[in-house]
Write a structure and sequence with these properties.
mainly alpha, Arp2/3 complex 21 kDa subunit ARPC3, 10 helices
Length: 200
Amino acid sequence: MQPTLFAVMSRADSRALKLAERAGAVLFITALTAVAAQISIPLPFTPVPFTFQPMVVLLGAAALGPRLGMSSQILYLGLGFAGLPVFAASPVLPQGAARLLGPTGGYLMAYPFAAFVAGWLAQRGFDRRYVTAVISMLCGLAIVFTGGVLWLTIASRPPIGLSAALAAGFVPFIIPDLLKLLVAAGVMPALWRITGSASR
């Protein structure tokens, strides 16, 4: 198991400072996820908006590792559940707990699991080279899509079949998300090169 970028960059020398650094890092990724949610494009043929959240979720987890990455997304969902306007703005989907129970809830609830997997792979060095970073992010993105599409089949009103859920929640997004992924996958290897720590 290898240290994450966050662990390598950490300069804290006491337990209290380490806890503060970890809390700050989790809050930072939570805030970035909320900001990414506001950059959303609603589509007329599906309740699922186009956002940059999945890439933030996966990159944040790669930097922080599985536990902190997952924690950042659990916190994000908790803030949204409490009613804070952290979810993507939508003319038809409510903020608060109702969003998690609505048609897009599966994507959101998959974020902690996708973050854990991306962070777990980062601890095994997948974020240090471009090809393995792509593989890591593909694994995380697959979790997001799986959760989202499966939830769509039961949360849509009326419930829809798997083929309709794929048409509404997968097909319109897979090419743009893959393009975003190919760009985002270069971020972590570049940061490792900048810090000079890729070979550690």
